[in-house]
Design a protein that fits this description.
Elements lengths: L4 E5 L6 E5 L5 E4 L2 H7 L3 E7 L3 E4 L4 E5 L4 E6 L5 E6 L4 E5 L11 E5 L15 E2 L2
Parallel strand pairs: 3-10, 10-11
Antiparallel strand pairs: 1-2, 2-5, 3-4, 4-9, 6-7, 7-8, 8-9
Length: 129
């Protein structure tokens, strides 16, 4: 790993993630699946797999949520950590799992047409259906 890296983990610490280099800007997903799995909105950053090291990978369980997407979570504490599409070389990692400071920001809200009716988006960030 490079000198500039970012650490993340699940709630119990059984899964620890190191990302080499700077984190890209993230997005907040409002789709029904992310809302149901996370309990609200799921914010993440997409990182090339060759920059990601996972310690405790044997504690990650995968749920195939659609034909092309699987979601990874800690088998011990249940923390939702990964969104992995078979069509991409990147993996989405939960922004909430990272230790501060992350040095990044959200750049968009995605799947806003599916967002819950109990909140409004008013932060001025790009919104995509």
């Amino acid at each position: 790993m490079t000198k500039n890296s970012h650490k993340a983990s699940c709630l119990c610490g059984a899964v620890r993630i190191t990302v080499a280099g700077d984190l890209p800007e993230g997005d907040a997903c409002h789709c029904t699946q992310c809302r149901k799995q996370s309990g609200h909105v799921w914010a993440s950053v997409d990182v090339p797999m060759d920059r990601v090291a996972i310690d405790g990978a044997d504690n990650v369980r995968w749920y195939q949520s659609s034909e092309k997407v699987r979601r990874g979570f800690c088998a011990t504490c249940g923390s939702f950590l990964f969104w992995d599409a078979s069509t991409r070389d990147d993996i989405a990692i939960a922004l909430g799992a990272f230790d501060n400071p992350t040095g990044t920001r959200l750049w968009s809200h995605i799947h806003v047409a599916d967002k819950g009716d109990y909140y409004e988006l008013g932060d001025g960030i790009l919104q995509k259906d």
